[in-house]
Design a protein that fits this description.
Barwin-like endoglucanases, elongated, binds zinc ion
Length: 210
């Protein structure tokens, strides 16, 4: 019926989408997780090394076999995953719902912005550690510099992303860009945001304002 094969159709759709500047990308849901320094890891897991269990989408990053319990004044959350590799700063990323259940006032901050991160207790079988490391991660888009150029985006720019499919279509405003040489184009939201927009594992989004 058609003179086009699927490869050509894909190319044409891509060109049209680019022309409309509405290239779509996957939405990754970040469940609560923890990044640790080597020092903190060794306190919580003496005589262990961080053991990769499952690679994450961004190159080099992985979910480890190790988990801990988060303890706050109002409650605790068990089996919170440690992500690897180990980092220069420890960071506990939770949702607003988690913060409420723990009874702490974690601020919404980009990963790495820990100036006013709040205290939370990390408990393993071997030890416990109370550190000012809890934030609610601010939604963001991972992308490499070629993606930045193709999508005509600038460093430091904030965009709006439309979730255009599913039964709870929403527009997320104030989405930050996290460019990096090896990043794969993907937006990260937390579980509260994912539930609010009914985001599934195959849900995609697109930038609608720049
Ligand atoms: Zn991310």
């Amino acid at each position: 019926m058609s003179n086009y094969n699927s490869e050509e159709i894909r190319r044409i759709v891509r060109e049209v989408l680019l022309e409309m500047k509405t290239e779509t990308f996957p939405i990754g849901i970040s469940n609560r997780h923890i990044h640790l320094t080597e020092e903190h890891f060794n306190i919580l897991f003496p005589n262990e090394t961080i053991e990769p269990a499952k690679p994450l989408k961004q190159p080099g990053e992985f979910a480890s076999k190790q988990t801990i319990t988060l303890v706050g004044p109002r409650g605790e959350i068990k089996r919170v995953r440690i992500l690897g590799p180990l980092r220069k700063r420890s960071q506990v990323e939770i949702s607003k719902t988690d913060a409420r259940n723990l009874g702490i006032q974690a601020p919404i901050r980009l990963s790495g912005q820990l100036d006013d991160a709040v205290e939370v207790k990390l408990q393993s079988e071997a030890a416990e550690l109370t550190i000012p490391a809890a934030i609610v991660a601010k939604r963001h888009i991972h992308l490499n510099y070629q993606d930045m150029e193709r999508l005509k985006l600038k460093e430091g720019q904030v965009v709006s992303v439309e979730i255009f499919e599913g039964s709870r279509k929403v527009v997320f405003e104030d989405v930050e860009l996290r460019p990096g040489k090896d990043f794969i184009l993907e937006m990260h939201v937390d579980t509260d945001e994912a539930n609010a927009a009914d985001i599934q594992s195959n849900t995609r989004g697109r930038i609608i304002e720049k």
